[in-house]
Each structure stands twice: as C-alpha cells, then as structure tokens.
Amino acid sequence: MARGIHDVWVALGEPSCFDVVEMGAGTGIMANHIIDRLRLSYPELAQALQYQIVEVSEAMIKKQQHTTGDRGIVWHQASAEDVALSGMMGVVISNELPDTFPVHRIKRIGGEIIEVGVGIDRANKRLVEVDMKLDPELYNPFYLSVLDTVPEGVVVNASPTLRHWQHNVARMLDAGSVITIDYGFSSVDPASAQRQFAPRLYQSGRQMRGDILEYLPGEYDITTSVDFNALREAGNEVGLSTILCETQPNLLRRLGIIQESELIRATRWWNPFKEYLGRTALFSSHLHDINTLISPQYDGFLGLVQTKTALYQVSPQSNITHFTGTD
C-alpha cells in the first residue's frame, strides 16, 4: 500500500504537504505499517505526510491511539460520509469499510417496487420479513436500475450511505486517489444475484449460516457484500474515475507485495530493517501474512482504485505506475 501511496505522491508532483486519510482504521495496525514503510523507504514523502484517521467510535480511537503511539496521526471523530474535510491533496484509503454501511432491501413484484423490512410474528414469537412501502429516497435510478438486471422477486441492496460517502470523498479531494478494499462483487450476475446480495452474519470473525432473523439481535454482526459496480457509479457521478477494479491478490501483486516478500528474505539480518519489523521472529509471520493475503481465499475481496482528473493535470509526465502496471 505504501508503494501505491508513493506513486500518487509522485504523480501529484511530490507536494510538500501530502494527506493520507484512512477511514475506519480498525485497531490501527495498517496505519503503523504504512507510516513505518514510508519512513523506511520513502523518507521525503514521510516528511510531507499528514496521516489522518476518520473514526466514528471513541472507543476505537483510544485503541488506535494505543496501537499507533507517537506516529503523528491526527484523528477526526466522525462518520465517513459526514466528516468535514476539504482541500486535500493525497489518498483516501479504507479496508472493509463499505460493508459496514446500512442498506435497504428492495425487490420488484408485478411491476411494483417493494422494500423488505422486519416485523414480528407474535403468534410464533419470532422476527419475520415483511413487505413495506419504498423509502422515498430510493426513488432514484441510481438505486432502482439494479432491479432491471435480476429476476423478479430477487431482493437486492440499495445503500444511500455508500453513495453519500463517495460524494463526500470527492468533495474532500482536490486531487488524488481513493483506494477501497472490501469483500464484494464487481458486477451483478442474474443467476447468482440472490446469493450476491444476501446478508452475511458473523460472530467473533466466524461466518454463521442460516436465517439471520433466527439469531438474537445485537449479538452478531450483520453485513453485506459490497456492490462495487454501484461504488464505481457513485464515484463517476462526482468526478472519481476508476483506474482499476480487481481482486485483492491481484491488486497487492500489482503494488509489489511479491517484491516485499523478497525484500524481507533478502534483508533478514539487516539491522535497520530488523528494527522496522520489531524482532526476528516477525519475519516468518510477515511472510505467512503475505502468502495468505494473495491466496485464492481472498479472491472474494476486491480492490477499487479511483482518481480525480486533476491528478494527471498536476504532473502529466508521471503516472501511477504500480496501479497501471507500467512499473
């Protein structure tokens, strides 16, 4: 990821102030790795770096601050779709953020568009799906056009939050790129749309099976696969052009993760690099993590790279080499 961020910095003409905004940073581990790698391999960029984290949870901010220590990070306690940043030149990154956005569940029956909600079957004391009147905000081709691509009765997801988020990111950026990694699909397959849009239920990182309404509310994480086609379209509305959308393993290979693993092997006993990793025992752990991230089990994760047109106007002779594959 640090290699890709460096490419954007070069494409923008190596500005003396460069923003990296991570939205939904989890425990802060990725922020640590990016900042440390930039300091080690790209010190001039590290000097220009202003790393910022957008996080809605106060508890998570405290955890991130504990993890990241004195790396000079600035926090903004706000939601990703509402954070009030502007005038940025740099990169907005997120890892498994859009799958947390709420969705409306909609379907078409006999020409009528219906929203699927949750009701109570009092006789049997259980939660059930119920048909509802469509939320007025969803009367928009952006949300309804997907229904034309699936069989009648198939329930699909519509996420105003996803669209608002893309619009907010575009407003924040004067020039730069947006890198989004999450599990999802790049196009709707009519034959498997019901599975693509189905809710996902997790407990302690383990996916649960069965009807999600049979589980107790509040004890499990409910999420959905990200519709990356909707994500691209939302970006296109506000001037975020898609450079590429591909599987996480392919994106990481393009960014140089294979070269990273070779560097780890080659510099195993080089003291500065050993200090960067922390201790010798971490070498095998890092190599294992790299092999895992590019394994077929992560083919269900996609990486989307978008850019503002101004990126190429600032430095027309340069390009985002690792993203475009020209390096």
Could you list some keywords that capture this structure?
Rossmann fold, 327 residues, alpha/beta
Detailed description of the structure:
This protein has 14 helices and 15 strands. The protein has a single domain (2-101, 160-195, 223-324), classed as Rossmann fold (3-Layer(aba) Sandwich). The radius of gyration is 21 Å and the shape is globular. The longest helix has 13 residues, at 29-41. Helix content is 35%, strand content 29%. Strands 1, 2, 3, 4, 9, 13, 14 and 15 form an 8-stranded mixed sheet that branches. Strands 7-6-5-8 form a 4-stranded antiparallel sheet, with no helix packed on it. The protein is α/β, with parallel strands linked by helices and 327 residues long.
Beta-strand content: 25-35%
Overall domain count:
1
CATH topology: Rossmann fold
Which structural category fits the helices and strands? alpha/beta
Order of helices and strands: HEHHEHEEEEEHEHEHEEEEHEHHHHEHH
Mean pLDDT: 86
Main β sheet profile? 8 strands, mixed
Number of strands: 15
Give the number of helices.
14
CATH class designation: Alpha Beta
Query: What overall geometry do the principal axes of the alpha carbons give?
Result: globular
Cα(first) to Cα(last) distance is: 15 Å
